[in-house]
Automatic annotation (TrEMBL):
Keywords: Membrane, Transmembrane, Transmembrane helix. GO terms for cellular component: cytosol; endosome; membrane; trans-Golgi network. Its main location: membrane. GO terms for biological process: phospholipid translocation; retrograde transport, endosome to Golgi. The lineage of its organism: Eukaryota, Fungi, Dikarya, Basidiomycota, Pucciniomycotina. The chain crosses the membrane at residues 37-57, 63-86, 123-145. It is a multi-pass membrane protein. It comes from the Eukaryota. This is PQ loop repeat protein. It comes from Rhodotorula toruloides (Yeast). Residues 188-201 have a biased composition (Basic and acidic residues). InterPro entries: PQ-loop_rpt, SLC66/Scramblase_ANY1. It is found in: Membrane. Residues 169-201 are annotated as: Disordered.
């Protein structure tokens, strides 16, 4: 999972919008908005080392272990919140796939039921309930913003502008652009008396 998340982060950085530097929101020290992939790897490595040292020193204290678990569960429970805020500001869920929402709801519902029917600390139940509640908000937004979402999707389909969008469409389009540039350069070479790559061989 960690490797997959870093892979997604690399793709997002590689295909981010061209005006990203001007439009990104303000954060202290540009936290988690760094310009290159190496900065994220360095921060993650430092975080792992610091947590490892703290756990070796404090693992005998029950309060520290419970606090660490609560922070971890709390961070996971807040993961859908940025999507909720983005949907609210755009009044649309265009770009947020229904299959992703279904996966979130199904997984979080299963987790919620499991934590309540088996003996688990209250932190697990509270965070699972909060996360499932955020999923419900996403479902409500999908219903309320359905007309604006449909209009946005039609507009995107007409414009076919995927510049700076991380995803399969952007990857395929960028690959297609490269092939078109290669074909154009070969045509120019043929017109000027050359024979392209095949002729040179």
């Amino acid at each position: 999972m960690v490797v997959a998340q870093f892979g997604l982060l690399y793709v997002c950085l590689k295909y981010r919008p061209r005006d990203w530097d001007e439009t990104r929101p303000y954060r202290i020290a540009n936290f988690w908005q760094w310009p290159n992939f190496g900065a994220y790897l360095e921060f993650s490595a430092i975080l792992v080392v610091v947590h490892s040292v703290l756990f070796l020193l404090l693992h005998r204290f029950d309060f520290y272990v419970q606090l660490l678990g609560l922070i971890a569960l709390g961070l996971e429970a807040t993961l859908p919140i940025p999507q909720v805020l983005a949907n609210y500001h755009a009044k649309s869920t265009a770009g947020f796939r229904p299959s992703v929402l279904a996966g979130w709801c199904g997984g979080d519902a299963f987790k919620l039921v499991y934590f309540f029917v088996t003996p688990n600390p209250w932190q697990f139940r509270a965070c699972a309930a909060f996360q499932f509640g955020v999923d419900i908000i996403l479902c409500v937004q999908t219903f309320l913003f359905r007309h604006k979402t449909a209009a946005d999707l039609r507009e995107r389909a007409e414009l076919r502008d995927t510049a700076g969008v991380a995803g399969a469409e952007a990857l395929l389009e960028s690959r297609g652009d490269r092939h078109e540039e290669e074909d154009e350069s070969e045509d120019e070479e043929r017109r000027s008396g050359g024979y392209g790559r095949e002729g040179r061989k």
